Amino acid sequence: MDDQGGRINPPGGKGAGQRVPADALLTALPTPLLVLDEQGVIVDANAAAEALMNLSRTAMAGMTIAEATGHHLKTMPSETPFVAYDLDIMLPHHRALKGDLVVAPLPNWPGWRQVAIHPRPSAGPIARRAGAGLTAAGAAAMLAHEIKNPLSGIRGAAQLLESSIDDNGQVLTRLICDEVDRVAALIDRMEGFTDTRPLELTAQNIHAILGHARAVSEQGFGSGVTIREKYDPSLPSVLGHRDSLIQILINLLKNAAEAVEPNGGTVTLTTAYRHGMRVLTDRGDGRRSLPIEVCVIDDGPGAPPEIAEHLFDPFVSSKRSGRGLGLALVEKLVADQGGMVEYAREARDGGADRTVFRLLLPRAART
Fold it and tell me: Which CATH number fits the domain that encloses residue 301?
């Protein structure tokens, strides 16, 4: 790069003698990069920063570095480069991540700086809660074996008694049958944790799957809820298992409908393509791309803060009648397809915070 025009001269071959503009290099840089003036205000950003922040350059212009990352640089001299490692970075809309900030002065622009953001890849939901998942699988296997078989005998005995007792007694036998059915249904759900067979993943149209899950919702638990769609119509196929994806979305829609139904709120389904979204593989020996984003958003109150970090753990629920298995099963099914699921409370422009369940899924191979 020369000092006059900030351009590169190719050494030879095709394009020799031509120059690449510095702004083109900035745009193509895969690392999110922000340019700050002497007041710490963002004046420019590259495409990678737009993808990370989920904001355009125009929207970011005028924001302070503290508003964009949760960290200000006032205590550091502007002419001194430095690196801050393993920070808790708070992006706009209350999106949190771990990462490093690399700050350097901008030559020929006194007081200006460039800030490179290096997100640390997530270890993924399996690695984060492997112990909890194994514990749930063991508990489910044990309970299914030890409890489910005797239940059929209890129910059969209650039905036999019902034919030989008075009306008052029949009320009790029916109660026994209802409770046996309820426990059996609970065990059926827990058995989902014990299935370790690999899923057959194929190219799927995520919008068709969302449409199916929405139709199921509107015919039952979500009949009194307004459901809106904000889709990216150009989204490529996702690599996944159709039935499991439907189950995941039905569970999340049911969760959202129950959160907003007392107030007649709204549930929003969104899809988007996120460039550069990668997580570590289960063994930590590489990175897996998860560019397909699917969000189930509701304007309900969200989970209590004391359990928000444990929502995907088995037997944790914010509902009085909840079993704490729905979200745990969602995480298992998502992880079985190589994806991850996140919970967040995010600010909404001009309104209250909203609850977001974000699925990040792999893209099917191009054909």
Answer: 3.30.565.10
